[in-house]
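Predict the holo structure. Ligand: S-adenosylmethionine.
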Amino acid sequence: MQTSTIVFRSDENKYLKKYLRTFNRYIILWRLLFFYYMQIITTSDGSHSVYSPQYDEAYHSSFGAMQEAEYIFINKGLLYTAKTSLQVLEIGFGTGLNAFLTSVYGNNISIHYTGIERFPLSVEEANLLNYASFFPEQKAWFTGIHQVEWGSFQRINENFQLLKVHADVLNIDFTKEQYDVVYFDAFSPEKQPEMWTESVFTRIFEACKPGAVFTTYCCKGYVRRLLQGVGFTVERLPGPIGKRQILRAIK
Ligand SMILES: C[S@@+](CC[C@H](N)C(=O)[O-])C[C@H]1O[C@@H](n2cnc3c(N)ncnc32)[C@H](O)[C@@H]1O
């Protein structure tokens, strides 16, 4: 009786181990598929982007991820403000390109940067991206941006602190009047209409300090009207290469 009980337990362990081995194989297989389908692509200025099969859309413009991000979020957003201390919010942290560029171009500004991301890339995937090769002296910042923990502010360099939030923007409660700059970098309204709504923009508007600047690559009329409707003053600006116009909104 005792023997049979011991045999039973050992069998149970055997099955558990077998189950775990199979489970691990599935995880490895899933990662391989993820790598295969989440393709890294090279855009026209030589910088990488990522193609999302889930949304059937790339993270950046095919005319150049780097030039697009520098123009829309850095030149028209970050550098439009004249403050020496800033709270930046990014909707759709993704590859960390905007955070990296903000740390580089905003290096004389004290910045607290919050990036919200529902589907984070792994550190291994981020390591495949070539953004640091554009700023070799700041390579360690890009590595740091991906290696630091999620969920609390982490120092990337003397002036730049990063909070990566693994969450769905649609379910987040923002603190009121916290941010000076907002980078709105969701997938396009065609692919992700739930992100371009009055409810999302109202919550972002409330999270902005008076005078805060909001930029996005999208210049659709209904997006402009939604932003105006929730209280922003909105202007159309000439776009980067490959894009006629973009939107900048001020609270
Ligand atoms: C157009 S990509 C831009 C990514 C990033 N700004 C970059 O430069 O790599 C949109 C990003 O939003 C993320 N995303 C999609 N839906 C989201 C949601 N509901 N909440 C938070 N992030 C989301 C995607 O996973 C993706 O990383």
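Residues 1-9 have pLDDT under 50 and may be disordered. The chain has two domains: 11-38, 60-250.
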